[in-house]
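During the reporting period the student researcher (J.K.) took over the structure-prediction task from the postdoctoral fellow and processed the backlog of single-chain submissions. One of the processed entries is reproduced below for the supervisory committee.
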Amino acid sequence: MIAFWAIAILLAAAILRVLARTALGAGRVEAPARKDIEIYKAQLAEVERDLERGVVSEADAEALRTEIARRLLAADAEAADAGQDAQRAPLLGTVALGAGALAGAFALYFTLGAPGYGDMPLASRLAALEDRAATRPSQAVAQRAYLATAPRPEVDPSFEALVADLRAAVAERPEELEGLALLARNETVLGNYAAAIAAQDALIAAKGQTDAGDHRDLAELMIVATGGYVSPEAETELRTALSMDPNDGAALYYLGLMFQQAGRYDRAFALWQPLLEGSPPSAPWVPLIREQIPAIASLAGIRYVLPEGRGPTAEDLAAAQEMSLEDRAAMIEGMVQGLADRLATQGGPPEDWAQLIVAQAVLGQQERAQAILDEAREVFQDRADALNLFQRVAADQGLR
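J.K. obtained the following structure tokens:
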């Protein structure tokens, strides 16, 4: 930091010196008195020529020399005074302007910059994010942590009895694909996410030849079972689905969510922007992306204007609920709650706190978002970069 400030001060001094020299040069303008001096000198030379030609006498020539010399001295004194004034004015103005510019630059740096914070090259930041993504919790760890506190849905006992019969039937005929698919859906309705994942996994194994939807549904079940967290195992299923169908909108949305959670807002934006702009308004992921992508773009440092489009209607929300699982709204709430629980119990980087603030805000829970923002500022009060991130999020979401 000492080297940084030393270089900054030396550069500022060099700039001021150049400005001052320029101002001094500009101050050396030719004043009217300077022109008079040249005229008087020409008149003296003319008197000498007239004397040589005999046009004037020696006495007249001497009188003319005396008068012209008097005027020459007066003009010279006037020119000296005018030159000093002309140089002093631009010099003072330049110094004042330069000092003001430097003061403004330092004030702007202390407002928007991070004084005292170490250098953070882009390459090292990206490497840290990649390392964090590679070492993030597994599906088993995240699922166990979430399901230990996740609320259980209230279910009609008769429905539970039917699902119990279905389990028994599937156990007797584990190769029956329809029974496995039905069991995966119904275990999800009961909140038995681990059992639903097992059933979907068994379905994929029994089918042999799968399609993108099979792997996308398995990834989605994994994401629901962790409260919205995209684990490495869920990412593998998403990438498998996209290798079979690169245009699978749901898989693209969840993969973008994974990048968002990993702090790679640039890659999340790169997935979500074409998905949003290329999808019909009725696509279930459109309202979800429209709510989140402005903040994602801001965090990625990208200037982005959300394309015009109608907001989510009742039909859109109904379509979102029918995406492939039966309870989409509960899933979205669970995703947000899961992130909140994870930060409360395990902590997390500033990017995860920013994501939670944005999620609460877009769900209309402004008071909750403000409370989380206040808590995040207290947790990271010694991190200038984190506080700058929270300030941008607050501005984007209309928070204090």
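The committee noted the following: The first helix runs from residue 2 to 27.
J.K. will present the remaining backlog at the next meeting.
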